[in-house]
Amino acid sequence: MKKLSFLVFFLSIVCFSQSSQETADKTAILNVLSTQQAAWNNYDIEEFMETYWKSDELTFYGSSGVVKGWQSTMDRYKKSYPSKDHFGKLELVSNDISKINDDAYTVMGKYHLTRPVGNLQGIFMLVLKRIDGEWKIIADTSCKVE
Predict the structure, then answer these.
(1) Per-residue three-class SS string for 27-51
(2) Cβ–Cβ under 8 Å, residues 106 and 56
(3) CB of 49 within 8 A of CB of 74?
């Protein structure tokens, strides 16, 4: 009976700590999205891009196709959003955050851009990975929805 009680106690601690860690991870990931939104709304593409993995392996998949690499993704954003009027005001909504493993999650959501040159809205799916203790976007799939 003592062994069973210890096993139940041990399993409850393990489950609680995993749940607690997932909650902390999800909070940190939501902070990444918050950082993105704030940077975008401040017309600060450099700060916005700090949330992405600075690697040639970063993958962005949008309406123009696949873009590989951090610098190419930065260049794509600068070309697609050449002025403050094109940036507008961004609102990100996270609909689902799912754990892949201890150091990776997917985030699915939607975005809405309110801007003078015409509003945009769409959906996204991000893959975030913990790299050197920080959550970074390693893959981004975004598309407009009419």
Answers:
(1) HHHHHHHHHHHHHHHCCCHHHHHCC
(2) no
(3) yes
Longest dimension (CA), the chain: 70
Dist CA 47 CA 57 (whole Å): 20
Span 62-71, pLDDT tens digits: 988 999 999 9
Q: What is the pTM of this model?
A: 0.85
Residue ranges of E strands in 19-119:
59-62, 65-68, 89-101, 104-114
Angle at 100 (CA atoms; ends 97, 102), nearest 5 degrees: 100
Structure tokens belonging to residue 47:
């700060």
Q: Which domains does the chain have, with CATH numbers?
A: 2-144 (3.10.450.50)
CA proximity to 102, closest of 27, 33, 18, 31: 18
Cα 94 versus chain centre, distance: 9
- Provide the b/e sequence for 84-96 (b: ≥16 CB within 10 Å): eeebbebebebee
Q: Which two tokens stand for residue 34?
A: 């918050």
H/E element, 124 = strand 120-131
